Amino acid sequence: MRGLVAVAALGGALLVTLALAAPHLAQASPVLVVSTLAACVAVAALAVQPWLTRRRVGAHVRVGGIVAALVAVHVVALFVESPDDALYSMSLDGPTRARMALFATVLLVVVTLLGLLRRRLPWSVATWRFVHGSLAGLVVVLGVGHAVLIQGALDGWGTAVLVALGGLAAVGVVVRLVRVLRTPPPGGGAQRSPTTQPTQEGDATAHDRGQVRPRDEAHG
Amino acid sequence: MPTTRTGPHPVAVGAVVLLVAVIAAALWNSDESGTGARQVGEAGGETVAPAAALPPPVPGASCAPTITNPGGDNNYREDAPLDVPLGRGLVITGTVRDTACRPLPGVPVQVWLQTALGSERENRTTVLTGPDGRYRVASDPAVAQFGEPNVHVAHDPDESPWRSVWQRHVLHPEDTLAVVDLTLAPVS
């Protein structure tokens, strides 16, 4: 786990360095630089997100909040940079890459809300995990795909690092989804029962064990 | 739940699969550079294309008016400086015609684009077409702006006998020539 976090942190640092070194940002406004760097850090944070669901749910919740905030900064900064172009990108006539970003952003909001509302939704553990996890996987594919298609600060080696971080996240989503959906949570999956102890290591999160305080979620 | 064992609800699975299909279809049906935007750049140089781009006006011919494409009026401002060079390395040119395919001299055309030193919001000029209906703007090469180098060409002066039209098209950073022709329809 620490190794993964280190790899993602290294990847994020590489993205930031490559973006700052690229000629694209040499004459750019501070707003565009902030937007780009926020997105770089968000990709690195996304890379560890699925892996954190294994016994690090508190961190997963906090990092999720950070990703949502970074993406908000990214979008708002682009809007400040050029409202006309931002609105065009968000419209249905925008380029493919912008449409990918639009879907990724909407899905990120949904995924974040699912995380915040987990305890209030009358869904089974398996259903919640499947929806939250698969939509998060879509966020990764669409968000990183949009960054790869964009010509600008992260071409060449930047694209390679983006693909590597996106791959780390996508593999994590698949591995964790398969793992948690194959091994039934306590209570047969019909309803969560926080008092029941997990039967196998790794098949239940701290949420299931009732070890995440509501305060952590609210702050996420 | 259909079973007592674990497993996501079939409705949830179906909804996610449907969502993936809808997103895939929406991406498949989108234009790579935005609706109506096409590659207008050439790396060959200025002397190659414009001569070929001007077909002889045939009596009785009719040209379809240029349709404003989405994003064409992004960052448009009426008060562009007249005939200011925007640098060197790229020439944006094209022929302005009426719907009978006749070249229109003396028609103002505004060009704006992002270059290394000028943002799309500031870097603009308005030029008049020559006797052959052709306008020409020299500029620094286009650089990516919001993900791709693009160039805007518009005709929208007050009191013009021609309808306003805005174009946004894309090119490559290394292109030395961009050709955007306009066919204008009368106002009434």
UniProtKB/TrEMBL annotation, chain A:
It comes from the Bacteria. Residues 1-21 form the signal peptide. Residues 204-220 have a biased composition (Basic and acidic residues). Keywords: Membrane, Signal, Transmembrane, Transmembrane helix. Residues 192-202 have a biased composition (Polar residues). The chain crosses the membrane at residues 31-52, 59-80, 100-118, 130-150, 156-178. The keyword Signal applies. Residues 185-220 are annotated as: Disordered. The keyword Ligase does not apply. This is Ferric reductase. It comes from Actinomycetospora lemnae. The lineage of its organism: Bacteria, Bacillati, Actinomycetota, Actinomycetes, Pseudonocardiales.
TrEMBL record, chain B:
InterPro entries: Intradiol_dOase_core. Keywords: Membrane, Transmembrane, Transmembrane helix. The chain crosses the membrane at residues 12-29. Residues 49-77 are annotated as: Disordered. This is Carboxypeptidase regulatory-like domain-containing protein. It comes from Actinomycetospora lemnae.
